[in-house]
Amino acid sequence: MAQCVQSVQEFVQDSFVPMVAVLCSEEAERVTRKNNLSFAELLRPFCRLTSEGHIRDPNNQVQVVKNLRICVNNVVTNLNSPSTFSPAQRRMLNEVVLSCQPQEGAATNVITAGDYDLNFSDHSLKASLPWYSAWRETLSEVSTSQHYTATTPWFEAYRENFLQSMPASEHEFLNHYLACLLVVSSTEAVPVEQFLKLSQEQHRVQHSGDYTNPKWFIPNTLKYYVLLHDMSEGDEQRADSVYEDMKQRYGHQGCYLLKMNSRTISAEEDEQIPDPWSQYLHRNNLQNQDVLEDGAAAVNSAAVENNMNAAEVDSPEKDGAPSSLESHPLQLDTASSPGSLPPLSPANTELKKAAPEGGAAGSHGTCLTLNDHGHIRQFIQEFTFRGLLPHIEKNIRQLNDQLVSRKGLSRSLFTATKKWFGGGKAPEKSISEPKSTCGLLYPPEAPELQIRKMADLCFLVQHYELAYSCYHTAKKDFLSDQAMLYAAGALEMAAVSAFLQAGAPRPYPAHYMDTAIQTYRDVCKNMVLAERCALLSAEILKSQVKYSEAATLLIKMTSEDSDLRSALLLEQAAHCFINMRNPMVRKFAFHMILAGHRFSKAGQRRHALRCYCQAMQVYKERGWSLAEDHINFTIGRQSFTLSQPENAVTAFRQILTNDSRQTATQQGAFLREYLYVYKSVIGGKEDSLPQLPLPCIHSSATRVYFGHERRLAEGEKQAATHVSLDQEYDQDQASMWGHLEEQLVASANRGVVPGNFQPSQCCLNSQTDNLRCPLAVAEEPIVVEVSFRNPLKVPLALSNLSLLWSFTAEGTSPSEENAEEAITNEETLTQGMKQKDDIVTTEIILEFHLGPEESKLARLRLLPHRIGQLNIVGVVYNLAAASSGETAPSTEGQQTLDLMVVRGRQDLKIQGPRLNQTKEDKMVIRHGLDRRLDPIITPPMPLMEVFFLQFPTALLCGEIRKAYVEFCNVSGVALSGLRVASTHPDFFTFGSQTTTPLTPVSPTSAENCSAYKTLATPRQPGSVATEVLVSAGDFSQPSGVMDIPIEGSTLQPGESTQLPLWLRGPDQEGVHEINFLFYYESTEKGNKISHRVLRHSVFICASRSLSVKASACRSSGPPHHSLEDQGSGGTLVFIDVENINTSEAGVREFHIIQVSSSSQHWRLHKCINPAKDKDCKLTSRERAKLCFRATPCKPQATSNAVRKYTFADLNLGNERIISSSTPCGDFFFRGCRSAEVQPVEAPTSRTTASSRSQVCVRTEDIGNIVKKCNELDLNIIVIWKAYVVEDNKQLILEGQLHVALQTIGKEATSLTPKEQETQEMVLLKFKSEAPPPVILPAAELSQLIKTNLHYPETYTHPFVQESLCVVPVTLTLSNCSLARVEVIIDLRHKSASPESVEVHSSFTWVGQTQHHLQLRPQEVLCLTLQACFLQPGVYNLNTPRVFAKLTDQGAMCETSQQTASPALIIINSA
Question: What is residue 1446's three-state secondary structure?
């Protein structure tokens, strides 16, 4: 239970005090009224005695009476004898509770229970917000003992007034009047006559039987005569003489002269006299009123808040209050119509000060001095000690004597106590139902009542032991008579007497109290007495630390007949739960909720709000969302009705922002309540926009896009994809684009990337680098994509949605006053003023609907017009609950809905990435900056759009296609420096200006034209290739960046240009993503933005076409001595072409129309196919073999310059394609460069020798010589046409495949190796240390010398005439290397192969069998040999073993020189 100011003993003593009545003459009443007080009110602050009194008990023992208080009331007569409170009394109790509110600024009081901190600070309870956190540090200020409790002064005030307002009843005498003060003024003509009249009036009231109230304790009531003398008017001597007369008449102990009003109002106005009456008078005890009529008594206390709906007061006003305040406390308001909102209209809740009938508050006792106060105090003391206590003592003796004589006992009741009650059994804890409701009624002179009367007298003068004995006796008599009301009263007072006995000789009999409460409530149906009993017992149990029993008792006393009583008792029960040794915090919270609900029903809204707020401290953030919703909803409603709309808005906001588990209907009701409250809060205050809780904004998901959204395709035009908000962000893609942009910037800055280079970012999100303010361009839109989420199950309607921004202009002169002042559009959005379109144009989305639990993106645009710093602050919108749309709303309903539209804002606060670099960052949670919403607006920049025409989506591998690209400058600034970089630079070419063929300008006229430059050249058998010398510089560029050849290198504003673009299908089949990055700059330099880029991504599906395999070998034929071929023999080039197309693209057949070569050293000379006249056609899976002779290129005169490439064309059809021009040459060089770029780690053989150390030069030179001997470096270009049927039309596709023949004897193919193989190759590359000595393998040494045998194919010899046939054979030795070679020729037969044994078993070489020769570089030497045959046959002459070694090679490492094919000779016999 809550902490009380008094101790329990003081509280119980003050609950039962001697009652004294007052009868005043009119003149005496007039004298006291000068002080705005009645005589009873005048005495009330002085009614507690400061000194001890004494009485003697029937055994003549002295009993000390300490701290006695008496109660003085005016005599108010009543014909009825009410056993319950009248409506006026109930109203008074309600107002007492209402007027007693928590004080603001009181010390914070915190209870710590487990992991809960419950704050009972009065300041926090005024509007204790549901999210109010209880601070632990306040504990140190509060605590020293084990338990802390909050004070509840409203409960104490209620309890005191309740006990004082108890109606007098027949079964007990505690609140019957013991004495009557007869008060007459000294100014009366004959005061004694007035005393006589008043005495007769008192006798009439007591004994006539006309009045049931007031009730008198004993027939012989003590009359005490008081003469009131007004010092300001009356004659003091006369007053003294009258008083002397009174002492003669009534005895000096029965009368008193009270002098007062010593102070005039005008005199000493500055003197401050204390006002002890105010604290008593605000309770307005109704027993002081002269008239007591139901519902008609004047009550001057605070008005009940908001027309309280208390059943015990007048009939509740039907103001449509929601059922949640009158039904089950946890039942939520389910009203879904706007009509449920009017009850929330706030009431004026200022508490009015209590004012008595005669004057303003604070003006009591104005005519009294401090001496007068002392006179009154002395008067009370004299009356009590000389009049009242002796009177009570005399009556106790009389009653004791009567009882002893009636019982026929020889000893007094006091001495017989032990005999009567010692060892007697305890009364029954439960009682049986009596025959009538309250049992019988005793006559006033019944002995049982006399015992009760004596017990009450003993109790009033604190003789608790004798009182207990009497109550115990009376209880037994009452129970035996089945007088249940009397028995309950005796049980109640016996328990209280037992508790109050000094030294506690017996334990507190709590079962007495339980039986009494049960009897009052269930048998006698008297809830007032049951409540009094419960209040006393709960206080006593609490003092004995029996909180659980006290809580149970209080909860049992709650009922439907009084909401106020139930609320107060439930609140006290809640405090009991939290004060237990193991605090039951959740029970505390639950009972506080129940108390708050009952307070609300009783019209005590302020107390209801306080209870809910205290309970919220337990329920918040514990996962009990439904309970939180109910509490927040109630707090919101109560706060609103108490004119605390800000708190109401915050509470409703809490319901809406949490992920609610309520039904859709309930959430809709919550939303409407919130909108209504919010609307009333704003009212006319629309200076600033408040924050709205709905919908939820996922701030970190906000994306910002700078620039125009791209135009879609126009007709055949396909626009560049660039960047858009529809694309997902990919980190790998972003780094790829950044790498391309870095290449472009380096190309534009002479190969150097500036130190402050940052990749362009058109679209910013949570994954991009947002540390710097982004750069935006004036007159180009900024699109902010905001992610909204509706957490509710009801739809939301947003309207007039726009961005809120502030702008600081740049370049204003310092003299201007407002130069640095930020301009914002908040006031224009708030008050509907004209938009500030001259600075930033703000786009407004008129309607934006969010379905139940829907997430939706809104794209909001700004168009900046000035240069400066723009800050995007948040979003502004109107919020309304969207109608379900099932029924068309009526006009009234529509108006209500219109009223429920509120305007507000939500700020976009984006938290940057967490910092995790330094140790300090790792120790604490720190976040970096995120400036994506703070763009810097820069001057206008050029803006380019790119369109592609006739751009394919599918190509065959190696297919050449011609497309067109259009560049448009759509801005007001000229652009220049147009470049492009790509991830696949070998996929496209713009051609080279020197070799670009004249092509039709318009795409339509070029429909059936070939992409190649062609010449009509009929093919002639045995024709030699046409050669063209080309410099590589005409085609290739040193990096992967291409300059785009536009006229004049600039594009003026509004200008556009079209360029042809040749494409070549990738060599590898599959889908290829090809990315282009176009780069351009402004012609005006010095801008913050140095350049701009435009992205384009295409996906090309490449399908298989032809597979080309090529190999080369030395020709075995004799060298030709013509002018063309002087100095060397040819090399044979074999080309295998296979159609590997799967016919998916509708390809019928491929025609190989031309084979070209390109090399700095070799060239294709002529076609030596056996079938010379056949056209080379390949249908599916067909293969053709072509054979060509290649010869070295002619020596070039300019040896110092870079060697030119020789292009040789051998056309197999009727037209020659000039392979050295665009696009064939472009793609050849691009293919070469991409092949060179890939193996970065492996340098070519030509560059290695110079970079190696000098120690190994000799060995390396040997290796180079051998390698050069095998090097071919011949690039084959196979040009084909494919015939495709598409849509019943025949199309001709053309393309080219490249094969790079590097080494003789090694096969090369046009198909790219599998990616897995290349990866394995990369993994196997190791960085070698010093190169090992070169040991030349046989395969390489065998190429040093080329051998040819010249002999007749057939030879006829007459073996009959001559048995030996000698045939001359010429052996030609050619030194293929550029070094001197030593050769050893051994003619002895030592072949190991079995075939050769069979063939030449009968032939031998004659003459010198071994020759030692030296050959100069590239020397050809003929050696004549003789072969001797013994019989005709076929012989293989290829048996000489040739050993070769370099002359200057130290070690002998000669290897056999074997030619590939056998040399067969036929010997015939003549």
Answer: strand
C-alpha–C-alpha distance, residues 1212 and 532, integer Å:
124
Any idea how long the chain is? 1470
Q: In degrees rounded to 5, what are phi and psi of residue 856?
A: -150, 145
Could you tell me how many helices (H) and strands (E) the chain has, helices first?
35, 57
Q: Is 395 helix (H, G, I), strand (E, B) or coil?
A: helix
CA 485 to the chain's CA centroid: 65
* Beta carbons within 8 Å of 1399's beta carbon, 6+ residues apart: 1434, 1435, 1436, 1462
Highest mean pLDDT among 118-132, 782-796, 807-821, 1334-1348: 782-796
Question: Which uninterrupted H or E stretch holds 871?
Answer: strand 868-881
φ, ψ dihedrals at 3, nearest 5°: -70, 140
Residue 487 scores a pLDDT above 50:
yes
- Euclidean distance between CA atoms 773 and 783, whole angstroms: 16
Task: Please say whether the beta carbons of 949 and 962 come within 8 A.
Answer: no
pLDDT at residue 811 in the model: 64
Question: What does pTM read for this prediction?
Answer: 0.67
Cα atoms in the 13 Å half-sphere on the side-chain side of 1173: 0
Q: Residues 945-970: pLDDT tens digits?
A: 999 998 898 999 999 999 999 999 98
Q: What are phi and psi of 276, to 5 degrees?
A: -75, -5
Other beta carbons within 10 angstroms of residue 1310's beta carbon come to 21
pLDDT of residue 1457: 47
Give the three-state DSSP class for 153: helix
**Residue 590 DSSP label:** H
Residue 526 has which token pair? 């008297």
Q: Please report the pLDDT score of residue 387 as a whole number.
A: 92
Q: Which of 1364, 1374, 1369, 1365 is nearest to 1353 (CA)?
A: 1369
Q: How many C-beta atoms lie closer than 10 Å to residue 736's C-beta?
A: 15
Q: Are 779 and 863 in contact (CB under 8 A)?
A: yes
Report residue 1224's pLDDT band, with 50, 70 and 90 as the boundaries.
Answer: confident
DSSP-derived 3-state class of residue 139: helix
- For residues 783 and 806, what is the distance between their CA atoms, to the nearest angstrom? 16
Sign of the CA dihedral running 1117, 1118, 1124, 1127: positive
Q: What tokens were used for 767?
A: 């994954």
Q: Is 1359 exposed, middle or buried (0-12, 13-18, 19+ CB in 10 A)?
A: middle
How would you label 1390-1421 residue by residue, b for 16+ Cβ within 10 Å and e otherwise?
A: ebeeeeeeebbeebbbeeeeebebebeeeebe
What is the pairing mode between strands 222-230 and 177-185? parallel
Three-state SS at 208: coil
pLDDT above 70 as % of the chain: 74
What is the DSSP code string of 1064-1117? Answer: E--SS-EEEEEEEEEEEEESS---SS--EEEEEEEEEEEE--EEEEEEEEE--S
Hey, what are 589's tokens? 């919270």
Q: Is 868 helix (H, G, I), strand (E, B) or coil?
A: strand
* H-run or E-run covering 174: none
| DSSP H helices in 83-235 | 87-99, 122-126, 139-142, 153-164, 191-207
Distances (CA, A) of 196 to 224, 388, 1034, 1176: 12, 20, 143, 155
Separation of alpha carbons 238 and 946, rounded Å: 122
Residue 965: its H or E element = strand 959-969
SS3 call for 1079 = strand
- DSSP 3-state of 1215: strand
Nearest alpha-carbon partner for 975 in 1076, 1097, 1059, 1090:
1090
Distance of CA 1292 to the CA centre of its chain: 60
The set of residues, in sequence order, having a beta carbon less than 8 Å from that of 376 and lying 6+ positions away, is 42, 43, 46, 258, 260
| Nearest alpha-carbon partner for 1444 in 1320, 1289, 1265 | 1265
Nearest to 609 by CA among 625, 595, 590: 595
* Radius of gyration of the CA atoms of the chain, in A: 59
In terms of pLDDT, which residue wins out, 1145 or 73? 73
CB 515 within 8 A of CB 488: yes
Cα 700 to chain center, whole Å? 9
